């Protein structure tokens, strides 16, 4: 049976884990720029007016995946706080929750890397040893797909099964 002290520890630890993942995935420019620089950047951004909008299909895929993961995380959180299950099952739930947070951070970082290197909006979904990337580009090039696969595989030690799909913008 879990006592109050252990319950508080698990609650605070999961909070710290979520906040650390959020901190890691935050853009660096939010952390390094001073308030004065932000106002200057806003003024220059208004002048240049370069806007890149994501397609609605990428947004829909992200929202769908986020809802699915949030439901799974909520179920795991309930398992962690439940008194009816064993400590081994709670440990498994905690490990799965930690794994989901790691995957979510990895997907976001891969999307940013693809955006940075190839200037392509992309959606990445990782599922165990499978990774799929949906990229919005007018150019459907096998060489580009191969480079994206190499970039994703470079993040992992184990062999990943990677698929790259292109959509027209």
Summary, kept brief:
Helices cover 66% and strands 12% of the residues. With 169 residues, the chain is an alpha+beta fold.
What does this entry look like structurally?
It is elongated, with a radius of gyration of 20 Å. Strand 1 (121-127) and strand 2 (130-136) form a beta hairpin. The chain has one domain (4-25, 53-167): Stage III sporulation protein AH-like (Helix Hairpins, Orthogonal Bundle). The chain has helices spanning 4-25, 28-32, 35-48, 56-81, 87-118, 142-153, and strands at 121-127, 130-136, 161-167. It has 169 residues and is of the alpha+beta class. Strands 1-2-3 form a three-stranded mixed β-sheet, sandwiched between helices. Residues 47-52 have low confidence and may be disordered.
CATH topology: Helix Hairpins
- Ends: how far apart? 55 Å
- What is the radius of gyration? 20 Å
What is the number of independent domains? Answer: 1
Give the name of the CATH architecture: Orthogonal Bundle
| Sheet with most strands: strand arrangement | 1-2-3
Name of the top-level CATH class: Mainly Alpha
Which spans of ≥5 residues are poorly predicted at pLDDT below 50? 47-52
Helix and strand sequence: HHHHHEEHE
The helix-and-strand class reads: alpha+beta
In terms of DSSP E residues, the strand content is: 5-15%
Shape descriptor reads: elongated
The helix content, as a percent range, equals: 55-70%
Number of discrete helical segments = 6
What's the CATH superfamily, by name?
Answer: Stage III sporulation protein AH-like
Largest sheet: 3 strands, mixed
